[in-house]
Amino acid sequence: MADRTRLAIDVGGTFTDVVRLTPDTGELRFEKVPTTPDAPTDGVMAAFERADVAPSDVVMFNHGTTLGLNALLTRTGARIAVVGTKGFRDVYLLGRTDRRTNYDITHRKPQPLLERYDTFEVAERSTFDGGVHQPLDTDDARHVAETLAERGYDAVAVAFLHAYANPAHELAMREILNEVAPGLEVTLSHELSREYREYERTSTAVLDAYIKPIVRRYLQQLDAELTDRGFTGRFLMTRSGGGAMTATAARDQPVNLILSGPAGGVIGAAALAPSLGQPNLITIDMGGTSLDASLVIDGEPVSHQGAEFEHMPINTPSLYIHTIGAGGGSIGWLDEAGALQVGPQSAGAMPGPASYGRGGTEPTFTDAALVLGYLGGDTPLGGTLQLDRDLAEKSLEPVAAALSLTVQALAKGMVQISATKIMGAVRAITVELGRDPKDFALLAFGGGGGLVAVDVARELQIPTVVVPPGQGAFSALGMLVADVQHDFARTAVTPLEGVELRVLEESFVEMETEAAEVLREEGFTPDRTQLLRSVDVRYAGQEHSVTVSYPSTGLDPVSAIEQQFSELHERQYGHTMQDPVELTTLRVRAVGIVNKPELPRMASRTDDGPPSLGTRPVYVDIDNPAVPYGLYERESLLAGDTVEGPAVVTEHTATTVLHIGDSLRVGDHGELVIDVSPTPSARTAKEHVA
To answer: Which of 504-514 are b and which e, b meaning 16 or more Cβ less than 10 Å from the residue's Cβ?
Structure first.
């Protein structure tokens, strides 16, 4: 079984990325196929065919999908209801009373996923310490269940007060719902989050219920299709927290998939960091619809507990990823003041950019890159999609005429605007959090990452850009190294000084027992299982906490936690205090360890140097409208090769652009390491032409 193929498929907004790994040889094959939003299962099976592999030959299938996220964005999820404790019917709709846009009189809250008509309450009451103040009124619960059945809801979220401490009433409510309304999908809040904060826990349950029917249906159809074609391997889904989960677990808790789209690339970046000798990385993943920026610090992805979707909290661990609407399909348009904007609207997969020839007429980033010469009709996207420069220019002409610009000048402006937006995303996760971008290397991937990476790095004074192998499908590659992950938590607000360690140990053991059983049921033996303890700590009276690892046996837990907390609080918030410290949450991360693929080492060149495909004229500015950029094919480069800018490096799934003064060398695993010149390229363009 060890010699069978591993496959990862990442469904994006425009393209579906495919990575095929042959374990025996270490050979990696990268492919792209168009995303099929109306028939997602068909798109995945087309990806199998494009990778030239039968499901029966796949030992492990890693999958990432934006299906749940898209349902939320377009408000096309299930018709849902929420059931809460009597007297707390409006927890979800009231939310928090904070206002983040204090000076915008036109601001309106995002559209909720349900109306008050869809909220219900049941007489019951647990206490914060797990006691029962009022038993569940089963007659009341049955009446609510009958009403839900009569109204024809698709799913229901049950979120009782203090269910994190005592879930008995939620479990009893599910039994009643299953009896009275057997076709109803049920989400219990405590199964997603065993933490306090009533609104956050309710919001998480509502989001899960909203996408559960559509995600469950999709995964069941895909699983059945794979089984019919002989698939007997392990089927894993990428999760928001950076690990993987089995498809069965994903069907039960799809909320963990909402922010999973960009997670694969960050996982891959962390796995690649040791080979690069770059423990600190800024990652930018530019796909067809959006750009995702994230951090890897000391070889580990940065995660957080405060993820949100349109201001609706998701109280499960997630990677810290900043997303903006700046992708290859982002549309260029004029605002009411006549100023040029790019995105966040996207041409998506259909019709896509005008240059795709699928009927699109609006100018996009991809069309602009083609007009500039960054992309070319001689290098098909994904190996099959031939770009049409005439259609690209035609799409830009109306906007160019309105601004009295040439088509090329407009294209340059669109690319610069996109690069500026990306710089803002990078600043948001570095400068605005007290980190200096110069202390990082920039890892650029996705179909468009290599087109703008050196521009972004130069402006932020980042000295090095790294373009990983298979950059256009790197998120799918990252999925291949993702371990299965489950997170367990218990609220325990208590002062750190004088804490009863025996009580903490009992809580940890309880979670670890549950975690080990979950992993055992998923087929992981004890030697492939890892249980990691951590605690959330804050200053007494403060709102924000930091997560620190719980010390191993033999250390004084209190002093070790205090030391870690001070260091992390200083790093994250820029100061420490003399106030008492308190614990808020105990956590256990359960990891099922999968076999990790090793990137093959690339052969070194023995002849004179990398073969050139000639040159391509690239528009730099109005004074340099056709600067000859060297043209290279990445598949022809070998370890140790060097390329001096200006140059365009094309490959099967993406393109990388170097400007004048930039210098590239090929690493041992095929990564492109670019030393970024601090001098703006336009300044030396005339010298280059001369």
So the answer is: beebbeebbee
Whether the CB-CB separation of 34 and 670 falls below 8 Å is answered with: no
The predicted structure's pLDDT at residue 1:
39
Phi, psi (deg, nearest 5) at residue 576: -125, 165
* pLDDT at position 282: 97
Query: Are 409 and 402 a contacting pair, CB within 8 Å?
Result: no
Q: Three-class SS string for 255-290?
A: HHHCCCCCHHHHHHHHHHHHHHCCCCEEEEEECCCC
> What is the pLDDT at residue 683?
47
Cis peptide leading into residue 646 (ω within 30°) = yes
Q: Which long-range contacts (C-beta less than 8 Å, at least 24 apart) are formed by 578-582? A: 579/539, 579/540, 579/541, 579/542, 580/495, 580/496, 580/497, 580/539, 580/540, 581/495, 581/496, 581/497, 581/537, 581/538, 581/539, 581/540, 582/493, 582/494, 582/495, 582/496, 582/537, 582/538, 582/539, 582/540
Segments of the chain scoring below 70 in pLDDT: 1-3, 13, 349, 378-384, 554, 680-690
- What tokens were used for 318? 């997630």
Taking residue 42's Cβ as centre, other Cβ atoms within 10 Å add up to: 11
Residues contacting residue 517 through CB under 8 Å, at least 6 positions apart: none
Token output for 660: 């004048």
- What letters, b where the CB count within 10 A reaches 16 and e where it falls short, cover 79-108? ebbbbbbbebbebbbebeeeeeeeeeeeee
Alpha-carbon gap, residue 656 to 672, rounded angstroms: 9
pLDDT of residue 682: 46
Q: Quote the radius of gyration of the chain (alpha carbons, Å).
A: 26
Q: What is the per-residue pLDDT for 221? A: 94
| Cβ neighbours of 595 (radius 10 Å) | 13
DSSP 430-478: TGGGT--GGGSEEEEESTTHHHHHHHHHHHTT--EEEE-TTGGGHHHHH
Which two tokens mark 32? 């792209």
Cβ atoms of 613 and 631 closer than 8 Å: yes
- Residue 417 near residue 431, CB atoms below 8 Å: no
Give the list of residues 6+ apart from residue 449 with CB closer than 8 angstroms, or none: 284, 285, 286, 467, 471, 654
Three-class secondary structure of residue 396 per DSSP = helix
End-to-end Cα separation, the chain, in angstroms: 60
State pTM to two decimals.
0.86
Q: Which residues contact 670 (CB under 8 A, 6 or more apart)?
A: 469, 599, 602, 637, 639
- pLDDT in the model for residue 688: 54
Instruction: Take residue 12 and report the two structure tokens written for it.
Output: 């994006």
Neighbours of 389 (CB within 10 A): 15
